[in-house]
Specification:
By secondary structure, the chain is of the alpha/beta class. The chain has a single domain, classed as 3-Layer(aba) Sandwich (UDP-N-acetylmuramoyl-L-alanine:D-glutamate ligase). It is built from 8 helices and 13 strands. It has a 9-stranded mixed beta sheet with strand order 5-4-1-8-9-10-11-12-13, sandwiched between helices. The chain has a 4-stranded mixed beta sheet with strand order 3-2-6-7. The radius of gyration is 18 Å and the shape is globular.
Length: about 300
């Protein structure tokens, strides 16, 4: 079982020719809505990877809630631990430019009400994988990471979005996933020694004994654990929308680890899934199904 403790949003997406500079207005080409939130995106990705998934989170009692949950429900994610609260459903305001790059503003809304007490509904077992991000209160993330350690479950922490006050949480997770920018910022917060990123990654692993995964966009993935360094290339693609790539990677990674794949095989599957997610617009609509990922893996072998 994958237990995802995290955010649920409705994404409000505008396509623009180029991203606006501060104080600038640019015309938009199209507008659409899509279910999102890093927690929900990762839950759907894990489900499409073939895992059994339970989501712990919250939405509002508003018109956005049903749409925000629609693909999770369709994907078979257990939503029994998702509360309806007197707050707005979380939203993400997203601009996507002609090259597929994006800027995002997140309004937490109901996600801010996901508290440590909600973990009581998790019914965590030793064979479970718990997956966290930073779009809910950090006290809840910390409580969940400690609960995973107490129960012997495996924990995966996606460090997005960067929050400097979350730096101490990285050492509590069994597997830490950060993009290159996030890791560099956390490395500074933690005072990790070394002039180059890989040196700082090694320093983190040496100090904590954890597995550290850093995604590098088009340059693939680098991971360091007690056994050494792994590098996995990205697929060669022309991206349409990169907004869901990182979350797809995390969901597929958690599902692959829960399935019993070793870290190298899990990273390869997750990297392919993340690349495929860049070929369609939207965070959740773009998450590939397992058969598409397996076909792409076979073709690249």
């Amino acid at each position: 079982m994958i237990v995802v403790v995290g955010s649920i949003n409705l994404d409000l997406v505008a396509d623009v020719e180029r991203l606006p500079a501060p104080g600038e207005t640019v015309p938009g080409a199209t507008f659409r809505t899509a279910p999102g939130g890093k927690g929900a995106n990762q839950a759907l990705a894990a489900a499409r990877a073939g895992a059994e998934v339970r989501m712990i989170g919250a939405v509002g009692k508003d018109a956005f809630a049903g749409e925000a949950l629609a693909l999770l429900e369709k994907g078979g994610v257990d939503l029994s631990a998702v509360r309806r609260v007197h707050a707005s459903t979380g939203v993400a305001l997203i601009f996507v430019d002609g090259a597929g790059e994006n800027v995002i503003v997140v309004v937490a809304g109901a996600n801010g009400t996901v508290l440590p007490g909600d973990l009581a509904t998790a019914e965590i077992a030793r064979d479970d994988v718990l997956l966290f991000q930073h779009e809910i209160p950090l006290a809840t993330v910390e409580a969940g990471l400690r609960l995973a350690r107490e129960t012997g479950a495996r924990s995966v922490l996606n460090t997005a979005p960067f929050r400097p006050e979350a730096a101490h949480l990285l050492a509590l997770a069994d597997t830490v996933v950060a993009n290159e920018t996030e890791f560099d910022l956390y490395a500074s917060e933690l005072g990790l020694p070394g002039a180059a990123r890989e040196e700082r990654m090694r320093a983190f692993v040496a100090a904590t004994g954890r597995t550290l995964v850093v995604t590098l966009g088009g340059d693939g993935v680098i991971a360091i654990d007690a056994e050494g360094v792994l590098r996995v290339p990205a697929m060669s693609i022309r991206p349409v929308d990169t907004v869901g790539a990182g979350d797809t990677f995390c969901g597929y990674l958690a599902a692959s680890l829960a399935e019993g794949l070793d870290i190298e095989a899990a990273l390869r599957r997750a990297a392919v899934a993340g690349s495929l997610a860049c070929l369609e617009p939207g965070a959740q609509p773009s998450v590939p199904t397992r058969d598409k990922v397996e076909a792409a893996l076979a073709a690249s072998a």
